[in-house]
Amino acid sequence: MIYEVSTIAIVIFIIFVAAVLGLSFYFGRKAKSASGYYAAGGNIHWAVNGIAFAGDYLSAASFLGICGMIAFYGYDGFLYSIGYLAGWVVALFLVAEPLKRLGKYTFADALDAKFNSPGIKLTAAISTLVVSLFYLIPQMVGAGALVTPLLGFPHWVGVVLVGSIVILIVATAGMASTTYVQFIKGGLLIIFSFIVVIFVLNKGLTVKPGADYHEFKSMPAVVENGKIIGFADSTYKMVSQHDEKDMSFVKLEKEGIFSWWKVSTIENITILEEALSVVSTKDGKKLYNGAPKEDRKFFQVGHIKKLIYKGKEVTETGPVGPLAYIKTLEESQIVRFPSKSFVDADDKVTVYYQTVTSGKNIMKPGLYYKLDTEGSFWSRLDFLSLMLALFLGTSALPHILIRYYTVSSQKAARKSTIVAIAAIGFFYMLTLYMGTGAMVNGGLDVESSNMSAPLLAKTFGIVIFSIISAIAFATILGTVSGLIVAASGAVAHDLMDKYMNKQMSEKAKVKAGRISAVAVGLIAILLGIIFQKQNVNFLVGLAFAIAASANLPAIIMLLFWKRTTAKGISWAIVVGMVGALGLILLSPTMYEIYGLPADTAPIPIRNPGIVSIPMGFLTLVVVSLFTYKKKNMKAEVVSND
Amino acid sequence: MHHGPAVELEEDKAIAKKTRLGVILFFAYLIVYAGFVAIGMIFPHAMGMEVIGGQNIAVIYGMGLIVLAVVMGLIYNALCTKYENQMNKEEQK
Known about the structure:
The complex is a heterodimer.
Chain A: H1 7-28, H2 34-39, H3 46-57, H4 60-73, H5 75-102, H6 107-112, H7 118-151, H8 155-172, H9 175-203, E1 218-224, E2 227-231, E3 237-243, E4 248-254, E5 257-266, E6 269-274, E7 276-280, E8 286-288, E9 291-292, E10 303-309, E11 312-314, H10 322-331, E12 333-336, E13 339-344, E14 347-352, E15 355-358, H11 359-362, H12 377-393, H13 398-401, H14 410-440, H15 452-458, H16 462-499, H17 506-530, H18 536-550, H19 552-560, H20 566-585, H21 588-594, H22 609-627, H23 633-640
Helix pairs in contact in A: 1-8, 1-9, 1-16, 3-9, 3-14, 4-5, 4-7, 4-14, 4-18, 5-12, 5-14, 7-8, 7-16, 7-17, 7-18, 7-20, 8-16, 8-17, 9-14, 9-16, 12-18, 12-22, 14-15, 15-16, 16-17, 18-20, 18-22, 19-20, 19-22, 20-22
Chain B: H1 15-42, E1 50-52, E2 55-56, H2 57-92
Helix pairs in contact in B: 1-2
């Protein structure tokens, strides 16, 4: 899709980025010691830290990914909101205070506090790096997706832009600056998302989202032996018909413009319904609805087909309350735009066709994760795997765990977690309204599910769109900063300082951290460009699965099982991480990225957690039982390494 | 080599009691969360059933899980603070 670039949007964007950079440099001047760089000196107020937690956590995945997934698949996207929030329960009840007691700067410090084991230092550092990199990919993809409509740049420019700014922030600042950036950004994100939801509810529901919303055409057609032989509008000429297993499309021509239509049968009458199309021709051109991108024939979509309000069919509801909004959606019929790709006369065609879906099906799981009669054993297992990884992943994310070291006490760690749960929980409730709001208010760019929340805001005016987009961009800046601090800490503090035992001064440690930050940032930029087409939320789900598989067994068993040994922890991290990565690399998702048919992937599930998390726990238990010595446990475990 | 926390922490006599409470509350929430996942997997059609105020189980249960996390967090904090005040003060006396 092509977007109009607005001066207001650019000005607001520049102000936001400048403010973020200014704040970072201001606090960066204070980060002269290793404690200042990695843990903000341990003196952040718990309430500030709680909102900063929210800022860290409400990344591109939450704002762009979840809203996009809800806008495209309804309630299935909201499953992520539920799972992400539930994960904080594990963090609060099991991890927050004990981790605060054990750690110094990083997650590896906490794991290694009892053992002083080189094996733990090495494996925990590698795991931190891998999880942080996987989490960085969707942030970078989100950055690219945002910059396109905001500034008119191509995707890769957005990725390079955010990567460069963040490298600048982290390489010059550290944890104090990322904390305050996250605090401000987290707060603004929640406030402005709430404002967008108020707009959605105040507008209410309508069958025509806006005055300039595209009027989709349809016309009766005559069919013989499965082939279209005539249709009502004689200004169109039939060009070709493409039949799929369960549906047919026809290509029509009018005034030199080609368009694709879906063949539907409603009450025994065959009709042609206008669809959106992207065609890559054999001579290298890309046509959007039959014309070059610059002709702006491609448009945002998303509307209600049949609106039922208080038992009656209406064209608009007027302002509605939050409960009435959901109930009305459930009773109405909504048009979604799934896609179908095929080859027609050497042209690669992707058609986005209208599918009327009952609101009842939209407001319950099943459109993405097939759970009902359509669903197989594997799709149910995939759902279980996702919910498990989301529940257990939060408290194993290194960039979240390091935030426990920025506060002064265990009590402050606990209180900041509760502030985070309240703030994040409120935001996640809003995602249901923002996602469905985009779905019915023409907020969908069919080519990118990641743009639904900003495009919904755009339907309410350019100013709110610009502010929301700038906050989303700052969201990515903040999250990426936190991730890069965590990853650079793994390299400079865990690997160089602790594992390799290089005798570095405080200044040298900070310098090593900053050089590592630049290196990690550059890798993230590259990966962000490679994974451009993936939904950011789905990618974050994978990062959660790796974190839950590699780190969580180690954290939980260390805290709650006295027989845990250093070797048990190291092997659990390795097996959990390699297991999760291996399952991801052989999954249908990666096969799609490789350009291979998804159904040929050897692993039938997309989310690895259901296999790799138990693998991590089992490895820890088995290895610990073999290496545990009753007498003088600590000394024995050290010697085991 | 020092491996302790970034800041010096005061001694806390309530650790064992708080840990036990955390584990109990964790399992309580886990049961409710597992119930949601089980309905989705085993009885997916039930998710669409209306329960309260015209809202279906999916919406009520999903939103309920979010609210429950906040409520349980507040209860946990109140009880932990009470234990800390009681036990650490007793120690000081």
